[in-house]
Amino acid sequence: MIAAGNPDVKTARRPREGGRRFPLHWIGALPFLIYVALFLLLPTAIVVVGAFAGKAGPSLSNITDLNQGFLLNAFFSSLLISTASAVVGAVAGALLAYAVATGNPRGVLRRVVSSACGVLAQFGGVTLAFAFIATIGSVGFIRLWLQERGIDIFANGVWLTELPGLVLVYTYFQIPLMVLVFLPALDGIRPQWREATESLGGGTWHYWRYVAGPLLAPAFLGATLLLFANAFSAYATAAALISQGNPIVPIAISNFLTSETGRNNPGLAQALALGMVVIVAIVMALYALLQRRTSRWLR
Amino acid sequence: MTTTVAAAGLGTAARAGVEVRLENLQRRYAGVTALDGLSLTMAPGELVALLGPSGCGKTTALRLVAGLEQADSGRVVVGGEDVTGQPTNKRDVGMVFQAYSLFPHLTAWQNVAFGLQMRKVDARQRRQRAGEMLELVGLSGFADRFAHQLSGGQQQRVALARALAIQPKVLLLDEPLSALDAKVRARLRDEIRRVQLEVGITTLFVTHDQEEALAIADRVGVMHSGRIEQLGPPTTIYSRPATPFVAEFVGLTNRLPGVVRGGEVDVRGTRLPLVQPDAADGPAIALVRPEAVTVASGGETAAGPLVGTVIATAFLGATSRVSIDLGDLTVLAQLPTSEATALPAGTRVRIAIRPDPVLISRDEAAPERA
After folding, report:
1. Which candidate from B88, B103, B145 shows the least CB-CB separation from A199?
2. How does pLDDT run across A94-143, given as a tens digit for each residue?
3. What top-level class would CATH report for the domain A57-297?
4. Which of A146, B160, B287, B310 has CB 3.0 to 4.6 Å from B347, enough for a Cys bridge?
5. Does A3 reach chain B within 8 Å, measured CB to CB?
6. pTM (two decimals)
7. How far B92 CA sits from the closest chain A CA (Å)?
């Protein structure tokens, strides 16, 4: 009988030479860690402190001020856009990733899609906004071309600069990101699992229902959460498309920090930012949990 | 390993073996012939090992029986039924893959019960049958472990239990030991044989490891270029190889240049009878097993065509393999270790070749060894 292990055998630790030593391999990571500390952890700390600071010291006034209709609407809109673009991006990206994963591993499709996604997942801001304005904006050539043929995509208003427009534009970088994040999980699915399912009497439906589906579900959900966080924190693209109002939280934060019309309120901006930090932190914690499960199954 | 499965339990899992026939199977991939008219009949309950180098077509043959690939022509008949056109999930075959085939999100017992679930066996029976199968492979204490919590050998045992749980007509083993280390491999090999005999299932075992094939199978089919070059019991395959390819692929063989004359081959002054005495006269390579070479260190060892120097000795346990440099070639002799230890490197020796019938090769190219 093969035993799983001998509990009597204890693993000996390698003795330290000359006492406690600084692990040298950390030196390589030091510049990056300093960079992250300066421009992620420090600003986060400033946001947290600022959110709880009033004019006369510590205060909850910024937090309580969040309970205003237009700010709650901004949160709701941000959540809505992020969820919609994450779901659309995840489904479309997963289909594209599946097409790539089931193709030739050294084929043209894989090389082209992988390279394109690496670039397009980072595409955003003014450039992306311009690309959409130039094509399907009010005077965009596709919009005009369709209009000449009697199809007016803006018959009920210019939705490109509203929330549906943001979902469409965000999808542009969400799909490639999904491909990049989800493709390794699909690559981890072994052909033997399908063949084993078949030899055990199962068909395609059983394979997806009982094997591939459950195996890929954590990776899919994790990737969707990542897409959500990606959209939730996006600012530049929305700012380039929308010039008025506080439709989503990042734009509201910007307005409270830069307003020249008396609405300048850094404390409230920091409270909004804190709300975003909390939401993103929860999402990323769930993502990490799901990733752990995926990496154990789909090595 | 002890067998602890209750007769009643095993009875529910076992099914009498059936005859399996592969008839003139042809398979080509993009112009390359993988199977070239392969035919094989397996008796009920028999374990046949297909042995051969990479690319010889052995895995293709197994996949055609499983239905994972379709033959260009030929038939697969299982238990008298032509299953050639049937999909895999209708063929009633159990299959153990090379490695990594357990579903990683399921526990050992859930893996074993998976095929029963596909067959809509109720949950209580599934649990019971999976338990019996895990007991059969000696893993009842590991039922709730996931694949990543099991060693490679344990995973393959679970895979074997999973394949047998559905009471298949035929068991297909696709190099199930190749990803394991040597010690586990030998133990699991014996374990597979024990279970196969106990269940009495007709089994096709594919391997490139000759030791494995010779140790486990009732009959071994040595494959070369999409055909079975020789099919027979392990002892016949080893001691009476039918072709030079089999002689060289199975076991070690000395390739000794000689000249064929009148049904014999003259190797450095020693005349050896031929397996095929009607071979044409002329230069040839005699294929001589190391066991047929004997060594003497006393007497006249100054010169002569069969005199040489020991250059190395490989300890194999009860026997040792001694390499002797004859000047223009090196000869291997397999000797009892007690004899071999008396021949340290540098010892001058005279070899002799036992006059057993030998095969000859006219082809200088050695077969690929996987």
Report:
1. B88
2. 999 999 999 998 999 999 999 999 999 988 888 899 999 999 998 899 99
3. mainly alpha
4. B310
5. no
6. 0.80
7. 7
